Task: structure prediction
Amino acid sequence: MNKPFSSIEILGIPFANTTRDQFVNQLQKRINHHENTFVVTANPEIVMYAQKEPNYQKLILTADYISPDGIGIVRASHTLKTPLSERIPGYDIFMDLLNWASQNQKKVYFLGAKPQVIQQLKLKLTKDFPGLKLVGAHDGYFKSETEIVATIEKQQPDIIFVATGFPNQEKFIASNRHLTKGLWMGVGGSFDVFVGAVKRAPKWWQTHHLEWFYRLVTDPRRLKRQLIIPQFMWKIHQLKK
Ligand code: UDP
Result:
């Protein structure tokens, strides 16, 4: 199926240059046509990791769609004078697809996060998205994939959300996506946010593009990870010259 939008490359990663609505719409079409689809939502951290791990970069390039998940990506596209239309956060895609899955009785499988988060997730899904067919859910701290793989193969979900954090979630998807013709997507910490175990920044911080700063001050352990952002910006400015 032809893509209804182009892509813009940033440090070797081609990002979908479209709006959130059009992006989600395209994913819905692919699900309805039973087309096997792999979606990566990439932020500066993922782009930088791919720079230093060529195997991860190769793996990401096998995705059908890569969404610009961080404001850093959109800013970089402007700096490089190839502006992306919109930031498309993974969490927003996750919510839009859950809503749609509920309205259209789609089969969904959830993999990732801590066991107690998965318990809460199941309850909240039944309440918030009653039309969704929950065909399985497993926490992300497993020793063997056997049971997970068997359920996915048997249930043939329309959508599989994998929330074990990068790079593991993309590796899991790349090696298992042949199991069903559905849509596979890595969603990082989205299950935690959905059940309220981790809060998104209040609206003000989001609209001022300071969500990263809010997360940093509320969870200082993220500092090491966030130090990668200035390195990313520096690299982009070098390219500009
Ligand atoms: N996680 C998991 N299995 C693991 C390690 C992490 O399921 O072996 C989960 C973790 O519980 C969290 C998610 O992966 O729900 C990653 O969250 P993080 O905030 O690192 O993701 P981000 O959105 O920043 O990529």
Observations:
- The radius of gyration is 17 Å.
- Residues 112-114, 140-141, 163-166, 188-189, 191-192 surround uridine-5'-diphosphate (CB under 6 Å).
